[in-house]
Amino acid sequence: MFKNKEEFKFEFSRRIIESYGRTVEEAHITEKFLTLETMVRDYASVNWATTKSVVKNNEQKQMHYFSMEFLMGRLLVNNMMNLGIYDIAKEGLADYGINIHDLEELESDAGLGNGGLGRLAACFMDSLASLDYPGHGNSIRYEYGLFKQKIENGYQIELPDQWMKTGFMWEVRKPKHRVPVKFFGRVVWNESTGRWEHVDAVVVNAVPYDVPVVGNDTTTTNTLRLWSAEPSDDIPANSDFRQYVQNVRDICQCLYPDDSTPAGKMLRLKQEYFFTAAGIAAIVKAHLRVYPNLDNFHEKNVIQLNDTHPVLAIPELMRILIDEHNYEWEDAWDIVTQTFAYTNHTILAEALETWPISTMQTLLPRVYQIIEEIHRRFIGYVKEVSHRDQELIDRVMILRDGTVYMARLAIVGSFSVNGVAQLHTDILKERELKDFCDIFPNKFNNKTNGVTHRRWLAYSNPQLASLITETIGDTWVKKPEHLEDLMEHVKDPILQNRFLDVKRERKQILADYIKEHNGIEVNVDSIFDIQVKRLHAYKRQLLNILHVIYEYQEMKSNPNYRIYPHTYIFGAKAASAYYFAKKVIKLINSVADVVNNDPETNQYLKVVFLENYGVTLAEKIMPAADVSEQISTAGKEASGTGNMKFMMNGAITLGTLDGANVEISERVGDENCVIFGLKDQEVKDLKASGNYHAWDYYNNDMRIRRAVDSLVNGTFHENKEEFRVIFEELMNRNDEYLLLADFASYVDAQHRVATLYQDKNKWAEICLVNIAKSGFFSSDRTIEQYVHDIWHLEKLKF
Length: 798
What we know:
The protein is α/β, with parallel strands linked by helices. It has 32 helices and 23 strands. Strands 1, 2, 5, 6, 9, 10, 11, 12, 16 and 17 form a ten-stranded mixed beta sheet that branches. Helix 21 links the parallel strand 18 (527-532) and strand 19. Helix 21 runs parallel beside helix 22 (579-596). The longest helix is centred in the N-terminal third of the chain and has 29 residues, at 29-57. 50% of the residues are buried.
């Protein structure tokens, strides 16, 4: 493609002329941006082709990561950095008078994910390619993302996330690999073939769009395959074509359609089957291009199911083996149960997917039939190994009370089941999935999550990356465990002061963004205390804002009480139908309106809510944080990955012993993080005792009473009923997530943070320890553990 600046300029100019019929000087900025994107994709395509060829020629085992979400973020800078061509492009564009940053800003975050689940999948893709493992993604090409969040008058408004408005040049459409996917219809027995057949189905074509996943400083380039629904030529007889086309389009229209109605449930299930069926069909077809049959399918392919959304892949592979390749049940099941591995991401009962049997039967008649048979045989097995323990059998049924339990199907059909942090896995084994752990003790294992340190430190925080490289060399980019070498320097006052300068520079960048987007002036020398994540009651953004209310009320009632200057920064989307969460967003913004405009206290306390939190905004936020708020009720957060990104960028964790916080605190030591609140077992015991009463805390702690009363006495909104639902949740529904039980401990923890911060060199030392210990939380380490324990892949050799 191009090896130097002059070759880049020639190629850039040539493409603009050929594509748009105008010179570089005449071209519009979007044309320049799309041309650069296409050039980088084509540059990567040479490596992409080489990677596919090596996998095929060496007959290597491949891993396929099935996930409903891939929260990729912007790819332009990441790909140019990984390819080592960023500086060439930057200098070449500068010769044309083009600032590369202006082009970077035109790229949208791909609307292919929502939260931690999707961002984890994206980090895994980066690490797989960078470590030279053949591992590919499989998902849906959503036309619109979850939603674009706008804050109007403090309320969340959902707008369509039209992320493809300026195009998405990374993708390559592959119509020759289209796959027919069947819905509805009925199943009949064919006497002549001795097989079940799915007839009268509605057929939809799944067309793949492939996106290259570029490894860092390597030839390895894997594939993220996104499936798009298109009309089939095989249209149902006597049907309305326009209605058929609309139904087809609905499948990929948006991420997580509202499933509160039967039609919404049907669409969600349709989405899940659509991409899993297409993905399985494509992998089977690719396998048969190299091998004579599917006998060795499990030896050459491993499929990781990221949560329960893609679990229909298990019965679908059974269907293909039995119906299309004439395998007997036992032989097919043997292949299937050596192919699939399942990652569990939650212990919240409401998040463990279930589907009405009637919906599954109607939409996927043959797949449901196979699930029934898996269920029947599994129950037979449990009867045998449990000596007919009927209570156990009732608890582990895949089909029960008109419902299909997807997590149970995943465990039964997989050879590996993993949690995503040690505490999470222990809870799964000892509590939530104990019955299955007793039945299949060898299936369960832990794989603590990680994040790609290349995106979240090397690329998004170049100031800190340069300081680290000056101090310990640059080997940490390829081997993140080398960040540990920083431990030899954490007490160096020169390094400490240089770190504080870098942090202040990053805080200024975020402060400028806040001024531009929120119109709020924040003090860069205040403590930037940040909580950014999905808004959910168990993540306890409400505890955070109640503490802010308490600090404000203390300062107002006592002129001698003043806190060290603090800027509390929130970012979160609430699911569009999640009324309580949306009220918490309104509360945060209403509190901000009051405290930010109070001249008596606003030099000490500011509150900022950043709208439309996503990957690109996170790349500004993480490097600027002093304090990382990880305050979920202990035992509720599976892992968290924001905690790792903050840690990598030199923020102190203020958190409960929940999820990966446990492992962060173990690695950095109690003196280098601030832990508070009830532990998991204490939460469990308190709940089990029945002795938790929110009103007791309200009546016995004046701080709590004043803060809670302010929700309904007009302090923060002229309508006293505005936050009634939050008051009710805390007081009359008995505070399910124990905010009031942890309130006093949280206040003390915040005081400890403020005291620590005032000893600047000690604070810098703590931050540097966190950075030094963050190498463990790179997704490179996580991937190596998956490879060693579950996937058994070989590195690609070029």
